[in-house]
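Input record, target 12 of the design panel.
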């Protein structure tokens, strides 16, 4: 292959990989509905499953996204391409590929992997294929490249680019402290455990929210601006009005995103219910990373009788819930 042909192929690969990394990084802070929501969802869905706690994930997410942005820019520049930039890019793709394979093993090839956030839905397997193709292109690029020259004179563009981009992310998308807020539509949440039904137990949610283990409760995990969540609460409100015999108390945990829409949410539902607002990391910590909104859990004396989450196979089902409600124990 002639040098001119190698140069053309090299630039085609560099532009493709640059676009891939820049779009991927931007998608993780995409303002839909906010950059904080996008980056925190990335933490909950991508980093926490790897074993990192929520606090460390908040720092790691901004560091990784800054690194992703930096690689997207640096691969177009003539600084340490063969020695540092291309190998680092391959390494980052390999890191996320391993994570995606773990995700597929644990939860199957379902849902949006989050590689491109809300911009482009992609299953974990599709993302693995994308990463493998990108790594093959990068290995070809590395073979086409000449050895880096004057390597000790051009370290500064790499460090300055990374520090500036990462610092900007920390400044414009600051880390928030975890907290739980009590909603305005407060009702008495202290009830005696019912004598009927299964023996008293402690559900996975009862440690942080003991009231959900008192009697019959429908614990709902919602986002106020989520259409599917609004449809779910409307169905539950309708059931409550027609289900005469001992309908469970409805308790809602909102994620702290678009909370200004909560009055509109309840107006659409038809009734107001007791709720609490959880910051996004805490919300996903309680719901758990493999689940998604809307989440509905029918709990009786601390025993989970039925559970629903997301909009796919395990989505909320009225008929299934009614069958669970009709069971005596």
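The sequence produced for target 12 reads:
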């Amino acid at each position: 292959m002639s040098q001119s042909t190698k140069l053309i192929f090299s630039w085609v690969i560099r532009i493709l990989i640059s676009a891939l990394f820049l779009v991927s990084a931007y998608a993780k802070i995409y303002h839909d509905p906010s950059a904080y929501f996008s980056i925190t969802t990335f933490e909950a869905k991508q980093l926490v499953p790897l074993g990192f706690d929520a606090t460390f994930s908040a720092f790691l997410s901004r560091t990784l996204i800054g690194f992703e942005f930096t690689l997207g820019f640096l691969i177009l520049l003539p600084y340490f391409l063969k020695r540092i930039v291309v190998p680092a890019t391959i390494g980052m793709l390999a890191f996320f590929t391993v994570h995606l394979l773990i995700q597929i093993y644990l939860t199957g090839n379902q849902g949006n992997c989050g590689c491109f956030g809300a911009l482009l839905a992609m299953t974990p397997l599709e993302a693995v294929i994308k990463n493998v193709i990108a790594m093959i292109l990068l290995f070809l690029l590395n073979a086409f490249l000449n050895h880096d020259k004057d390597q000790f004179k051009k370290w500064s563009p790499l460090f300055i680019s990374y520090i500036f981009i990462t610092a900007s992310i920390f400044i414009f998308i600051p880390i928030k402290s975890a907290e739980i807020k009590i909603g305005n539509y407060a009702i008495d949440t202290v009830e005696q455990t019912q004598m009927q039904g299964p023996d008293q137990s402690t559900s996975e949610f009862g440690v942080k929210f003991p009231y959900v283990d008192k009697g019959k409760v429908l614990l709902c995990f919602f986002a106020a601006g989520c259409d599917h969540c609004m449809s779910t609460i409307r169905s539950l409100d309708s059931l409550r009005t027609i289900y005469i015999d001992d309908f469970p108390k409805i308790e809602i945990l909102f994620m702290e995103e678009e909370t200004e829409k909560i009055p509109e949410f309840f107006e659409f539902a038809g009734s107001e219910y007791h709720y609490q607002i959880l910051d996004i990391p805490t919300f996903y910590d309680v719901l758990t990373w493999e689940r998604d909104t809307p989440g509905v859990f029918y709990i009786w004396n601390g025993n989970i009788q039925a559970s629903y989450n997301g909009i796919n196979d395990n989505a909320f089902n009225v008929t299934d819930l009614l069958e669970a409600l009709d069971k005596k124990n």
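The chain has two domains: 3-172, 180-326.
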